[in-house]
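Attaching the record inline, Q. Sequence:
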Amino acid sequence: MGKTIPAHARKKTDIHLTNEFVDIAPRHNLLSWGLTLGVTALAALLRWPRLDVPNEIIFDETYYVKDAYALLTNGYEREALEKANEFILEGRTDVYQTVGSFVAHPPLGKWIIALGEHLFGLNSFGWRFGVAVMGTLLVLVTTRVAIRLLRSIWFGALAGFLLAIDGLAIVMSRTALLDGIMATFVMLGVACLILDRDYARDRLSRKLKPKSKYGGRFTWHPWRIPAGIFLGLAIATKWSALWYLASLGILTVIWEYSFRKKRLAKRPIMGTLLRDTWWAKIQLLVPAFLVYLASWTGWIITTGGWGRNPESTGLVNIFKSLFEYHKQIWNFHINLVTDHSYESYALSWPILLRPTSFFYKENLPNCASSNCAAEVLAIGNPLIWWLGVLALILVLINFLKSRNWRSGTILLLFLAGWAPWLLLPDRTMFYFYSIVYLPFLVIAIAYIANSIYWGFNLKHLNMNVFFAVGGFILIAIISVSIYYYPLWTALPLPKEDWLMRMWLKSWI
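Structure, as predicted:
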């Protein structure tokens, strides 16, 4: 297993290494899972009450609520009647025309929304049930990923706590959109690959000697297959998850190369290419593709879907039609240039320059003030996000100085959800797309906090200073979440109180 590194000899930039070749994850399972379930319970407490409020179809729910119910009843999306939203709110379900509807996203996320509609009916609680489940699960998985990635139970739990109380995460768990569902599947894929990294390194370290030609023989990677499945589920929700499949595929190769190099392999690049890369591609890509294809089963086995020729028989002709359908979806996405009052260029997302208002109504009845307003504003906790930007800069500096695998992983997975949108400046896009990289932003905060803690510890500085400053910041973050919670959940506010929460004019 290698020798243990004494505390005084560990690098400040990677202070948690406990083995020469393998980073051992915390093994205090009772405390680890206790904190995980605690922050998950907090997340549920902030997401589930009044889930049916507002009792309206808000923002892009207008697409997914109806598409989901059409999938549930027909197996494919159908065109809705002109006043379908009004009919649904009146309790009607016969709101469809007979023709298939062109959709811009794969079916899986809508199937999850449809599950809630099946269990609880075509109502606001029913169509938000599935996203609430996934949004709560996102906090649990992020906490587990952070604990294993940071090798710290308490600071991993801190990352989960910040996600639990962040406004964007709360709103995306209470609105029937696809992005929060995709983010959860992405994090499940990340969790599997980090588990795989630990498993494979531990196995190789126990069995092999360093200074071999390739730095290790081929080994089984059992967690890559479920990782491929979860990433396929993410892509089957929204295509933007493809960037995570590519990034995580690259990350596995980098991890393998760095391990072989650390073992003083004579030819680490060839060892990585010959003994790992090809296998990693198979284990990730094949499950992802099969899962993605399976998500279109309803369209394949029926004949009424968009672009589905009812007279076309045979799998070859059906898949040709499906391929043509995908070409139309691709053209839609790359040519989507439509003015929208809440569109926001990706460069401004981390600093919350233009959040998205999903719902707004004023002059509410039974108001204690002369005028009350209720809103669902998709905006994160400003302190979490602005601290997150600072943390990411420090993580970048740390990586450039130390080539630390943790900081590199955090940066790459943050950029996988953000950077691709920077390449499309003319495309219509919205701030709430950033939910997919929010987990890595809060992990970056926890990572820097952890590094500062160990820096204090190594220098034998007064730890009371660390806890006093950290406690003050945490209390401020919690206070801001309490202050903004009404804007995330459509709780009525006097108009003047609503205006006080508009810290920037661009938030209105």
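The chain has one domain: 7-301+346-507. Residues 1-22 have pLDDT under 50 and may be disordered.

More tomorrow.
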